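U., I forgot to send this yesterday:
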Amino acid sequence: MVKRIGFLSFGHWSDSPYSQARSASDVLLQSIDLAVAAEELGADGAYFRVHHFARQLGSPFPLLAAVGARTSRIEIGTGVIDMRYENPLYMAEDAGAADLIAGGRLQLGISRGSPEQVVDGYRYFGYAPQDGQDDADMAREHTRVFLDVLRGEGFAEPSPRPMFANPPGLLRIEPHSAGLRERIWWGAGTRRTAEWTAAQGMNLMSSTLLSEDTGVPFHQLQAEQIERFRKAWADAGHGFAPRVSVSRSIFPIVTEQDRAYFWRDGDSQDQVGHLDGGVARFGKTYAAEPDKLVAQLAEDEAIAAADTLLLTIPNQLGVDYCAHVLEALLTHVAPELGWR
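Result:
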């Protein structure tokens, strides 16, 4: 099955002497350069993780707009924006502007969010759950409003004495980018959340961990999640076809530098642990020579079921090395598996 293949950067920076990204400026500028390099290599997507109160990418829209201005073909996205922190109307303005700059290439991943760096960090941004609700309820309410305004329908009463002439009727959020509503993804951590995602008409984004465990290998549990999503989508009867992405850590070993960095990961296995107070299953890292990778990845049922594969890249190793990882997979692995 032919697949869209992109990278997912967590956008870390640190002042470690081994890091090629020593500051926020380094990460932002290198992220743009890596997206340009990925497009030149024939990759299909440049995606960025969003974390607040951390030495990582926290304000995605300036970066997405900059990548959109420097590229012409590659999809540009997030994986994922924590909706607990977001003003949905302001976010719709930012997203519309970034999508128009990119010519309709934005693929926006959103979610309830992941474990935080600080306690209830969303409260510092001015948001708190209403009585009888928790932070997940608040994130879903922010999402509901966001999805509604992306439809481009007017809802705001115009002033009788406006500064500029208004079109007739109620006013909508501007700028509006037609089609963006169908390019919103939800980062789902469970099978049940995947079904909810389908009911809302959002694409499914599934990462390298699931916040549940049934005892089966990670890729099988994730494949079941995808199957449930697609059934729920069919039952909902939306008017467009959904997309599904999965993330993986995959490192083809084709140079001695690759071997030095990743040969220890060749024996990686799934792990079961605790996340946010619950049991979670974490997928393994794939690291091997290309022929071995082809055999291993051919057995991954979730990758087979998805149309989009996002490669988690070690961004602190620098643009050149991350581009090398992408090129190695696109050249030595993807064609052998029918992804290209």
